[in-house]
Structure formats: C-alpha cells, structure tokens
TrEMBL record:
This is HAD superfamily hydrolase (TIGR01509 family). It comes from the Bacteria. The lineage of its organism: Bacteria, Bacillati, Bacillota, Erysipelotrichia, Erysipelotrichales. Keywords: Hydrolase. Pfam families: HAD_2. GO terms for molecular function: hydrolase activity.
Length: 237
C-alpha cells in the first residue's frame, strides 16, 4: 500500500458511488428503517455501516450473521431493495454530494481519467448518472455485477485500473466506507476517505435483536477529507 501520493502524476481517480458521489446513503438507510419496522428487526446505524459498500449477496450473508439464519432477513432485504429502487426510480434527484461536479470538471480539464467502481448493479449506476446529468462523463464503469468478489476484495478497483490501462500506483480511490477503504488497500491503491454521516437519522428497537454485531476495524486511509471540495483543493495545490 502506498503511504503517500504524488498527485501531480495522478492518472486515474476511481469514484465509489453510493454515499460518496450521491446522497443515497440516507435513501438506503431509510429503506432499511422502514422495512425493519415492517418485519420487526432492530435497526441501528452500525448495521448500515457494517453492510454498506458490499454486494447484495454479501449484505444478505452479513444480515444472517447479525440476526440469525432462522429469521427471514431475505424478505427484509428484498423489501429494502424494492423500497430503495422505488424511491430512486421516482425521484428527480438522488442528491449530488457537494463538490462532485467541480471535482469532475477539474479532473477532466487536467486529463485525469475517471471511473466509477461500485457494488451497485450497472443498471443502477447508469440510472443515477443519467438522473444527475453525469451520463457519459466517466471513462469506465465497474459494477457489482461485473465482479466475482465484492468489497473488501480488491477486484472492483483492480478491474477499473486494468480497463483503463493504469497502474495501481498512478491511481487513487475515493471512498466513504470502511469496507471500501479496506478494498482499496487490498488493491494496493491509495485511498481518500470522505465519510458519509447518517448518525442523525432515527433507529428502531425491534423485537428481533442484533445477535452478533459485525465489528468493522477502522482502516487508515491515505488521506481523509470532509468533502469532495477539499479533495479538489488538495489536488490543485
């Protein structure tokens, strides 16, 4: 893993999507919460943070681990996905994160390649990009349905580098989740962390309690920023 980066020689910036580019973390959390009440599962912020960034199959396995295989986490998960898809399909915006457009513009003006590497399916990625008028701007899109192993495996980020013929030491990943930071480090790619804070949203004390919490060890990113604006400012210096 790189300990520092010469950003003047940067050739590729790899964007995670949910919670990093768009404010979809809140949409997802609210879908968890609404359907946790329906199925009576305890829902707290740490459940979301433990599961975010993973593929759907990995999320289901994580839910089984936390709540027990005898509880119908699959029905809960299916309801979450249905709710999230309904909201985003009918939305006029999924909320661009502050600084996203300015950062993309800066990278384009400086001939730095950009890619999306997300655990979401490609159809979802393309829908969000179209909705936010960002369609056609990215040089590559690597989705969860294009890889065999989801984050924290490094495949999605390595595939982005491979597709654009850029070595890992000449790239940087922008991430909002611990699992994404770990995947970047496993890929040997520098990673900038911009946290997605949803701790102001409510929780639900359901009857089906969390039995085995997934404890995520904090991963140290190459650098941490408060916003994408700060990332742009850092690259400009």
């Amino acid at each position: 893993m790189q300990s520092s980066i010469n950003h003047k020689q940067l050739k590729l910036v790899i964007f995670d999507m949910d919670g990093l580019m768009f404010d979809t973390g809140r949409i997802a959390y609210n879908a968890y919460l609404k359907n946790a009440k329906k199925y009576d599962f305890e829902m707290i912020h740490d459940v979301y943070y433990a599961l975010t960034g993973r593929t759907n199959a990995s999320i289901i396995e994580g839910m089984k681990e936390m709540y027990g295989e005898e509880n119908d986490v699959i029905a809960w998960r299916e309801a979450i996905v249905k709710e999230r898809n309904y909201v985003t399909t009918h939305a006029t915006t999924v909320g661009k994160k502050p600084g996203l457009v300015e950062l993309i513009q800066y990278l384009k003006e400086n001939n730095i390649l950009i890619a999306v590497a997300s655990s979401s399916d490609k159809a979802v990625i393309e829908r969000y990009l179209k909705l936010e008028l960002l369609e056609g701007l990215f040089d590559a899109i690597i989705s969860g349905d294009m890889v065999t192993q989801g984050k924290p495996a490094p495949e999605v980020f390595l595939k982005a580098c491979e597709e654009l013929n850029v070595s890992s030491e000449d790239a940087v990943v922008l991430e909002d989740s611990v699992v994404g930071v770990k995947a970047s480090k496993n890929a040997g790619i520098n990673v900038f962390l911009i946290r997605d804070d949803i701790y102001d949203l409510p929780i639900y004390e359901g009857k089906i309690k969390i039995r085995n919490p997934i404890v995520l060890e904090e991963e140290t990113p190459t650098k941490e920023f408060k916003s994408l604006f700060e990332v742009k400012q850092y690259l400009e210096d």
